[in-house]
Each structure stands twice: as structure tokens, then as C-alpha cells.
Design goal:
single chain, 480 residues, mainly alpha, Amino acid/polyamine transporter I, two-stranded antiparallel sheet
Length: 480
Amino acid sequence: MIFWRVKPLDQILETAAKKSLKRQLGALQLTMLGIGAIIGTGIFVLTAVAANKAGPGMMFSFVIAAIVCALTALVYAEIAAMVPVSGSAYTYSYAILGEFVAWLVGWALILEYAVAAGAVAVGWSGYINGVLREMGMGLPLALTAGPKDTITLADGTVASGGFNLLAFLISLLVTWLLVIGTSKSAQVNAVLVAIKVLALTVFVILALPAVKGVHFEPLLPNGWGTPLSSVGVLGAAASIFFAYVGFDAVSTAAEETRNPNRNVPIGLIGSLAVCTVFYLLVAYAATGAVGAQPGGALAQSKEPLAFVLREIGYGQVGNWVAAAAVIALPSVILMMIYGQTRILFVMSRDGLMPEVFSRVHEKYSTPHVVTIITGVAVSLFAAMFPVGALADISNSGTLFAFFVVAIGVMVLRKSQPDRYRPFRTPMVWLVGPLAVIGCTILFFSLGWETIRLFLIWGAIGIAVYLMYGMKRSALANGKG
């Protein structure tokens, strides 16, 4: 059956060796890349979105999202160590479930990475616009948010934006950085990760003493939430899931990693563990210090962590934290665009995307054409849409991909039980089904509007595959 062309694992590894990327990343760099991709808009910006959906109950949302991600990371680590090539969930699906499913996953990953990069750029612009306002150099309202976004003015009125100029420009700058080389990007990223971790550490140290029990009442103003409602603890967990998904970007770097069988699992699990601890501390401190009721001041803020510090009397430090976000959030944009280009690179190598996407720059050894195309698309997303909407749409693609990978790893355990597994998911018949269930619950908690957009995107993807990819597939033409 044509929709179930399966590309054997051995063949995938052989293809990658013919047209491969340079292996130059070690375990520490990979973990730093993971932390760089994870810590970002989710904690610096979506804390406000979570507060608006769940109130103080957002702390449970962080825990739920972390558990689902931990389960998925354990599953991911097994297949990423077995297939240490670029492509992430797309490549894994091709090897286990066939070309059509792989295409759907690759198409969904465009939502995860490209749209996510746009969301981070919007979050970054919220902080830098706040810094500029504090300095008396604020941009006109029309240039600080997209036409689909709203801004609460000082007098309480709500206005719409026009074109998010700074989000647009930072996306293009990061694209240029990625074009000039992976190792340079990783070195810059390591510095930015240190800045982000320092900023969050300072926030926790200053905000924890200001925690008051009264700020946690009522704890669950919108309840636990129900599927399709997009509110309550589950609705906030579905949104805040965005705060964790950067760990997946580690697996997209497998082909550029030294000793990937060992280093990829370390990068996946290590980065997720570090970030989870930070997130829980920050969520507790922010909620307890100023309150987090839906519709409240924290829930409406475009720069929530800086807002909290200013409210508890650390105005200057709040500005410093905002400045840290301004300096460091571009590292997340970098990793999201990086992940997207590597997936499109592999899909092109497989014949499912145009050949030009897999061209490598003679001087920089990077897939420059697809990087530039992706960067321009991301910059336009960032200029036009609000961060919450972009994050939810991104999550829909991510959760679908994670769902498929979890199923795929269990299928592979049955179909190829004797294949060498450098890392084995512990208790896979418990962890795997729990990962599937968790991804399903969070997917439906995103709300009907997001699910509708995901289905439309999926329908477009199927049409593109039938008209282009199915006929040009390298596997179908004996070139795989």
C-alpha cells in the first residue's frame, strides 16, 4: 500500500551518511542547547497566559505539562539514540510507521518549530518594548503588536496593534546567525543560557520572601477545566506545554552530535530536568508574590516576571530581568528555527520537499536556503499574531508528533525487539501509553478553535503530499 512505504532504519542511517552534516556538538553543548530552547517564552511570557486561564492553579498546570514532557522525553531518548540523524519525529515515523504518517508528522512539526519561533519573537518584543517604555523611548502602539493582538493601555482601554516591528526584526537577525554556522550559534547560545538562568535565579531569590498565602485564594477560580474548553488547569497546561517542548530540538541536532548514542539522551533528559525545577519555583514565587487571578494585573502583563519584581519593590531589578529576557530569548528563536530547518532538510533529502531545501552552503556548511526561507516565514508570523495564539497552534503540532513517536517506539519494540538500543525507555509499556494519553488530553484541552486550525493545516498537508511528495519521494523512485 503506497501510504505505508517504510524506510528501514539501516537505510535511513546510510542515506544520512551520504549527505551529512558535520558532527561538532558534545553532551554539554547539547544540554545547553536544550535548556536554551526550553527556557524562554513559556516562563518569561506565558506565565501570564496561564494565570488568565487557571489563576494560582497554574502551578498544577506546570506539573501536568512537565509530567507529560518527561514521559515523552523518555520515549524520545530511546529512538533518538537508535537513529542519531536529523529529522526528529519525522525521521522516526518514516522508519516505523511509513511515509504517509511521516509526512503528516513533518507537516505538523512546521507548527511546532516555525510557529513556535514566531511566538518566542512576540514574547521577546513584549519585554524589549517594556524596557524601551521605561527608558522613555517606547515605539508607537501600532508597531508593538500585530493586528490580531491587543494591548491594555494605562487608562484601562484595550487597543489592537498593527505590525510587531521588533519581533519581525529579531527573527531576521537570528536567521542570519544560523546561516553563518552551527558552532558559532552554539557558542552564542551557551552565553545566553547562562544569562537566562541567572535572571530566573535572581527572580526566585527576590520573589520567594514576598509570597503570601492570601494570593493563592481562590486556588482554582476556573476549576480543572474540560476538553475543548481551553480554560482551567488543563487549558493552562495545554498552553504552558509550550514552555517545555524545546527538549525536542535536542533530537534534531543528533546528526551534528559527537557520540550521539550517549549524548542525545543526556541532552534530552538533563535539559528537561533542570528546566522543570526552575519553572516550578518561578510559578510558585510569581503567584505567591502578587496573585495570579484571571483578568488580574499579572494575567494581563506582556512582561510578567519584570512586572512581579516591580510590584514588590524591586523596580530596577525588574528592569534587569527584562533586559536579560531581551538578551536571552533570541536563543530560543534560534533553536526553533534551527530545528525547523533540519527537519525540512531531511524531508528534502527524502524527496518529499524541493531539492533546494537540502543544499549546503560551501563556506558555512549549513542548509542556508531553507534557513532563509524559514526565517522570513517566522518573521511574518511574529509580526502579525499574538503570543498566546501562536503558542497554542504550535502545541497542537507538537502534541501530535509526540503522540506518534510514543506509538512508534512501542511498535518498534514489537517489530524489531532484537535491534540494539543504546538507551531503553524504562517500563516502556507503562511510560509509552501514559505519554499517549497525556498528549491526547492536552491536545483536546487546547480548545476547539486551535484544533480546527490544526485540522485545516493537516488537510492542506495531505493535499501537498498527494500532489507533490507521493510522486517525488526518493523511496518511491528507488533513490532512498
